[in-house]
Amino acid sequence: MEQLLDWQLVIVGIVASIVTFIINFYVQKSGKQLSTTVIQWITFALSFPLALWWGGIDLPALPIVSGDPGVVAGNIVDYVSGWVLIAGGFIGNATVVYHALKKLVFERIKK
Q1: Which value, in Å, is the radius of gyration of the alpha carbons in the chain?
Q2: 3-state secondary structure the chain
Q3: Residue extents of the structural domains in the chain
Q4: Nearest Cα to 13, choosing from 57, 48, 50, 40?
Q5: Per-residue confidence of the chain (111 residues) as pLDDT tens digits?
Q6: Is the Cβ–Cβ distance between 75 and 29 less than 8 Å?
Q7: Which of the listed residues 3, 81, 82, 111 has the most CB atoms within 10 Å of its CB?
């Protein structure tokens, strides 16, 4: 996912509106301002479910753990490397969503 499709941007806009409403409500009721870092972490955390929904994950096959120890060790390494590849792609997709969401949230927060 290098960029978001139009319908995905609409959903990001809806999520940004909800997040902005909650942040502004919190600030108004508590009188405490949220730091930029906290808002960034909130938007980054919210980008993961959206990235999972839109990108999905193909889990690697479980390694075969019977037979020659050398083959078993190789199978386990292949399995772990499969998870690393999945994590890299997933975090990349989440980052694309995060940047779009962060931009909208920071544009709408009352200063």
Answers
A1: 20
A2: CCCCCHHHHHHHHHHHHHHHHHHHHHHHHHCCCCCHHHHHHHHHHHHHHHHHHHHCCCCCCCCCCCCCHHHHHHHHHHHHHHHHHHHHHHHHHHHHHHHHHHHHHHHHCCC
A3: 6-108
A4: 50
A5: 678 889 999 999 999 999 999 999 999 999 999 999 999 999 999 999 999 998 888 888 888 888 899 999 999 999 999 999 999 988 999 999 999 999 999 998 875
A6: no
A7: 82
